[in-house]
Design a protein that fits this description.
Growth Hormone, Chain: A; 2 domains
């Protein structure tokens, strides 16, 4: 984006600071606005960031010295992306697995969620540098596309879990097994209570 080496290092530090600030905000924002709204809003903002950066890099990548304003605009949208990611898609995938799995599957579900998160982070960290080097602005188009897919996925498949108890997750995902178990347990308990009463009635002359 036309920055010299020293400025690249400075902006790298600023990017990390932006993500930390956004993650701290998310401690309040996740419960205030809900998971679903933040994921949808985050996907839109990250889409816009990648799209604008793709356009600017594609247009000015060979003439940054003559278009310093465009370079700084790209940097600004990159910082905006980090703020958005740190407040939405950064922390929420760590919180939701512990909320949606029943007790019998929670440990394995959270383990697989963590494995997926770190595994995909590793892949992205591995492929991004050569992508930027070889396809330049196409890298931002690639991630822009996945942001759009993320929005569609959340809109149609991800329910709101904010304010729900673990017991209510079954109804959220339309799982009737726990309800059926509770009804069966209630029938058994009712039978146990009626048993001693009927025995006493039979024993009376």
């Amino acid at each position: 984006m036309g920055l010299d080496y020293e400025m690249q290092l400075i902006m790298s530090g600023i990017m990390n600071i932006c993500q930390v600030v956004a993650c701290i905000w998310s401690l309040w924002g996740i419960d205030r606005f809900g998971r679903r709204k933040l994921l949808l809003g985050g996907a839109i903002c990250m889409f816009i960031s990648h799209f604008v950066i793709a356009v600017l890099v594609g247009k000015y990548q060979h003439s940054w010295p003559e278009h310093t304003a465009a370079g700084w605009a790209s940097v600004a949208f990159l910082l905006f992306f980090m703020l958005t990611f740190g407040a939405t898609w950064g922390p929420i995938p760590w919180a939701m697995p512990a909320e949606i799995f029943p007790s019998s599957l929670r440990a394995k579900g959270c383990a697989f969620g963590t494995m997926s998160n770190w595994g995909n982070n590793f892949i992205i960290g591995l492929i991004t540098p050569p992508m930027i080097q070889n396809i330049t602005y196409g890298t931002y188009v690639f991630f822009c596309t996945f942001c759009a897919i993320s929005f569609v996925w959340v809109y149609f498949l991800v329910p709101e879990t904010n304010g729900r108890t673990l017991e209510q997750m079954d109804s959220v995902f339309k799982d009737k097994s726990t309800t059926e178990e509770a009804e069966r347990r209630a029938e058994i308990m009712a039978g146990l209570k009626q048993g001693p009463a009927s025995q006493q009635a039979e024993a009376m002359p």
